[in-house]
Amino acid sequence: MxxxxxxxxxxxxxxxxxxxxxQGKKMSIWKKILISLLFVYVLGCLFFSMGALFYVLGxxxxxxxxxxxxxxxxxxxxxFTGIIxxxxxxxxxxxxxxxxxxxxxxxxxxKMILLSRLLTLLILEYMYSLLIMIPIAVVYxxxxxxxxxxxxxxxxxxxxxxxxxLSIICLLGxxxxxxxxxxxxxxxxxxxxxxxxxxxxxxxxxSIQNYIGVLLEQGQNIADTLSKALPPIYYxxxxxAESSFIQLMKLCAICIIxxxxxxxxxxxxxxxIIMLQKGKAKVVYRQRxxxxxxxxxxxxxxxxxxxxxLPAYMFNCxxxxxxxxxxxxxxxxxxxxxxxxxxxxxxxxxHVIMMVIMIFTMMTSLNQMSAVxxxxxxxxxxxxxxxxxxxxxxFSSKIIAHILVSMIGFGIGVILTIxxxxxxxxxxxxxxxxxxxxxxxxxxxxxxxxxxxxxxTWTNATLLIKQxxxxxxxxxxxxxxxxxxxxxxxxxxxxxxxSTSQFYLIYLVYLLLLCLLSYIYLKTRxxxxxxxx
Amino acid sequence: MLKIEHLTxxxxxxxxxxxxxxxxxxxEIYGFIGHNGAGKTTTIKSCCGILKFDEGNIYIDxxxxxxxxxxxxxxxxxxxxxxxxxxxxxxxxxxxxxxDIYQIEKDERERLIAYYSDLFEMTENLASPISSYSHGMxxxxxxxSALIHSPKLMILDEPFVGLDPKASHQLKALMxxxxxxxxxxxxxxxxxxxxxxxxxxxxxxxxxxxxxxxxxxEVKGQSSLEDVFLxxxx
Lengths: 533, 234
What we know:
The complex is a heterodimer.
Chain A: H1 2-17, H2 19-22, H3 29-63, H4 67-95, H5 100-104, H6 110-143, H7 148-182, H8 186-206, H9 208-217, H10 219-229, H11 231-241, H12 245-274, H13 295-309, H14 311-317, H15 319-342, H16 346-362, H17 381-386, H18 391-420, H19 425-452, H20 461-466, H21 469-490, H22 494-497, H23 500-532
Helix pairs in contact in A: 1-6, 3-4, 3-6, 4-6, 4-7, 4-11, 6-7, 6-12, 7-8, 7-11, 7-12, 8-14, 10-11, 11-12, 13-18, 15-18, 16-19, 18-19, 19-21, 19-23, 21-23
Chain B: E1 2-11, E2 14-24, E3 29-34, H1 40-47, E4 55-60, E5 63-64, H2 69-75, E6 76-79, H3 91-101, H4 106-119, H5 135-147, E7 153-157, H6 165-180, E8 184-188, H7 192-198, E9 201-206, E10 209-215, H8 216-220, H9 225-233
Parallel strand pairs in B: 3-8, 3-9, 6-7, 7-8
Antiparallel strand pairs in B: 1-2, 1-4, 4-5, 9-10
Helix pairs in contact in B: 4-5
């Protein structure tokens, strides 16, 4: 029974990604190859970024014989990633799953339902663990060498620490579900949690060099502090570095005992927690004057309401907007020192500003609102399909909403940047026009991807968004298409014969072409695809 | 009002709807009966422009749904068997959205929303998010949203499922009222007693093909509709 429940849930997770299979239509071999390549690319990027970070850390720590700290930091990043990656999934899977009541009505003991959910989450945690631990092991192998015993301890440790992540995400998921059930603006609670975690992670990543300095000065003190304040991380590091069985057992105890307690507490309160979402006080309607809107405006407003009602949508598909705020704020408030450093050589000014414009342009690919907007219609797609609304109006509303979300952060980021950086008129125009056009292209690109691989049979919107093949495809295609021209310019002789102003013009034409081609596709094949959904 | 000509819809090797032809005149309530998987919902969704079909044609008030989808959809309203609405909107936001889609005048939409919401006892609930609604409440909201743009043709898939007796009674009365004003109704149901009392004409579909159609008297004669149906589909 347990196996069936887990297999069903995992099938659900996988089918969300390979949505065509889920709909009974077999995916072509080319699509399978393309999606596999995308997976490999994403994994490569993740492995590379993690490997690069730990290469910097490892060089110093291993030289100072602080190998245990290398692995302790690996555990820290692993636990943090595991928590942030599945905190909201836990809330959805455990407490807000649509099939909770159906399963409870069947002759399945609640402990089985709960256990199957927890084990599914544990499998997700192991996936995160692999993402972190593989590059970390490879980097360590490159810098020093892992003995066979250390490999065994690393594997065992990587199997054990996700239990701690699981306990923490269950607790956080319960808190989120509880607070959300008590207040009207539940999306706000979730977005506050997400942004706080994200900024914390971002801050840690940017401050890594400072930490190394502190580690060098106070290695022993930190070891003592870590063993007291964050014992799982310390035990993980020590168990591998020293091949210590006792430390491994301590890690085992500190990770698995809390999981046992969490399981017991959840089991005792499972039905009560599920009912948290029920029986909210009713808001009585008072008749009032209604505002009228044009058809397109009504559709756009609907897209925006859906966007703000789903924290996972806002966070996963509106990340670029958040980055625009951060970038603009960083340039405006903390940019003095960097600006002085970068602009000390006047010949560099032009290139630095070009880089800023390119960063603004690249960041548009992090906003992927349109890439899941068709799938999010879900079972409610009949409303649009049976209404007198043209495909053009539907597509336009999704594109406009995407651009509006992008422009909120972009506008503020641009204003702060223009106020701080010495820019010419051409550069200001490039900063305004290029990212705007890129944003339009990304909106088109996302919509096309979602039309190609829609998924309307989801049961959990958060999982749909997090595992959307169309978001992944559109993000990667967007990134590659946006970076290819600047890379060609930077790493070829073109920059000798083409001035930056001319480059902006070429890039503008390139983006216009992308927009035009995707517009034509949407108008012809896109409309047909939508009709076939 | 609704004319279906040789409608055929194929899924893979299966002909889900096979050469279905029927006509619904203004003022008629037309019942559509069949076992599960017979092809009722596929036919209905094809009529509403939700599903593309492979052969035949469908005309709404003389216009082809394939050639003039928007004009056809303006004249009709559809209520699905499972009213999945926008959970992130409140009831009133949803109704106002639908009113915007059909570009209903402000005063008219306020009057009609108030009227139908009161009729189905939904007014108090309109401020609550749709996600908090029961199946029956969602069904009522879908019915109200279908009525506020005063359609000429209503296509309903199992409309009485989930409705309380009072709402069910109100819907039947509204269906009669609409037909008296020259509108037409095409609806599927498994409740044969309802079909027998409500419909002017009826069609029975089995494995995608119409096996009988006509006025209620022509189809059932002196027997009950249940006996006729069971005999035909066995």
